[in-house]
Amino acid sequence: MLLSLESSVTALDQFQESIDVIGNNIANVNTVGFKSSTSDFEDTFSQTVGSNATGPMQVGTGVATSSITTDFTEGSITGTGVPTDMAINDQTGGNTSFFLVKDPTTGTEYATRDGEFSVDKSGYLINSAGLRVQGYTDAGLTTLGDVQINNTGAPNGDTSPVANYTFSADGTVTVQLDDGTDFTRGQILLQSFAEPSQLTKVGDNLFSGLTAAGPLATPGVAGTEGLGTIVTGSLELSNVDLASQMTDLITVQRAYEANTKVVTTSDEILQDLINMKR
Questions:
Q1: pLDDT tens digit string along 128-160?
Q2: What is the distance, to the nearest Å, from the Cα of residue 111 to the centroid of all Cα atoms in its chain?
Q3: Is the confidence at residue 1, as pLDDT, over 60?
Q4: Which residues, in sequence order, are CB contacts of 218 under 8 Å at separation 6+?
């Protein structure tokens, strides 16, 4: 087989994969907290056909995808006015920080940048999939678990119903009861990782593989130890640069078309060889 045919076929496969990555980025341009991906190529084994005074003479056999990496650059933060919506501002930290949420059924923990939270009928702070936000669950800020908003831990055992609640930039949850009593109910914590590129996207704006990514210590208070701060009443938008993605799409499309021409030319050469035999 002509090496040009083999090389161009591998290129078509990889460029199709690159188009898949770009297409997914564009599809998620309005997805809250979405992190775009980029694909990188590498050449494959080169066949040595001889040598001369300047060194070996080699012909490559194609291209392969070396990596598909996630870009964790922070997206724009926009206000929503919804008290339970939260975004992480990493500009004050240094590391990419994440909220932690846990599946109450399986106990599996995930990281997410999507802070579109709400409060369920039991008072738990949850994401759109019903996973519970993690942090300190007591007034003393010592016990880790599911963040819950109720009158538990109120001064003097006050059992008045919850009238209102607020979240601060460091994640502290302050509850106000019907009788006007205010107290700290808990605190939302953040987590950063040594190698966030090791996190795995699993849908629903969630990342798994937390252990492989190397958690930096235990979940910490926002605004400390390199963690970002929490911006309440706001959400982080997708970090997809639509103009850049469209430019990349055109570039890949042209490369794909060029390689289809190589396939066509190689096929014509093979056809000529067959006709010579006849």
A1: 999 999 999 998 999 999 999 999 999 999 999
A2: 9
A3: no
A4: 144
